[in-house]
Sequence to fold (411 residues):
Amino acid sequence: MKKSKKRISPTLLFLILFGIVSLFSDMTHEGAASIQGAYLTLIGASASAIGFVSGLGELIGYSLRYVFGKITDKTKKYWPMTIIGYLIDILAVPLLAFVGRNGWLFACALLLIQRMGKAVKKPAKDTIMSFAASQEQVGRSFGIQEMLDQIGAFLGPLLLYLVMLFKFGNDDFEMYSICFLILSIPALITIVLLFLTKKKFPNPDQFEPEPKEYIPFKIKKSFIFYIVGISIFAFGFIDYSLVAMHITRTYIGDSFITLENLPLIYSMAMVVDAFAAIIFGKLYDKFGIFSLVIASILSASFAIFIFAFNSLPLLMIGIAMWGIGMGAQESILKAVVTDLVPKYCRATGYGIFECSFGIFWFIGSTVLGILYDHSITVMIVVSTVSQLIAIPFYIISYQRNKLSIEENKKH
Fold:
């Protein structure tokens, strides 16, 4: 007798399809992110301005997620919210091709609009993903999603590297403009695939069974400690725009690093991010939040390697450590929310999580950008210590949640 082939479950197929949507989406905006810092510098922005705009973008992109999370939970319009957000997010990037030579304010406005799109889509998207992930292994599911994300995040900068390698345009400004215009190709593919995924899975909320009883949303102590931890982490985690600007100022003209291959460095970080996401996602399914502790310890000192030395090998180590931090951030942090917040109010939970994360990312990015202009050493210390201080809060959150589960079982 022939053995029947093991079929992919509908939930896993949905996760993969949505992951491919994210692949082309990340190809678009992470491709832009790889040259964003250098581009803003080229058209007149200072380090303080870049730090402020990066932080403000995260503030808009994260803080408004609480609002849109509440709207999503109330209306249950998961797909419409996701689609509207994707359209704003994706289409803002190619418009950077039409920014003037001294138009850094216009470029910053477009980047803020792009983050607004993320604010609209993320609570709905993450909630949709959690419905499917809850039927698979949660850590692995978000790890797969992040791995596909980061394949796109690798291919986007690589595509721009090829464009820059052939030196399209008469000067650096025109070359950057062409790069942003070319990113309209993965942007359009994203939109097409998104509608195809919706057509195949019109009701993803049906993946996860409804709870037996309705319990009004209440913020548990374990969730509060978790939010405090991720907020401190966000404060200290340096945005890549500042990293790219530092590389431009310090290493351009080096035997390896040139303006044309700058996107390759970001691609390397995204490859590390992809592998870290899938590895730490699986570790989360086995060891819970302690996998986040391990990732935080591994990545906490990336600023030392990137900013403290004028050494190409140490820079590469620092970029890899930054990638580990990003990979853990995108996979484990979301998986924890799925475990801490019930289905019917999960978009609100994600909204609170994203809102707090964004506020502290904004404050941190602004402070770290100012510190870069005045004292790089102090900036390094603030970044490293902040990420390490977050670890005890992760552990307390885990212990509180475990205690809560045990008490519920007794009752």
Summary: The mean pLDDT is 83. The chain has one domain: 10-206+217-406.
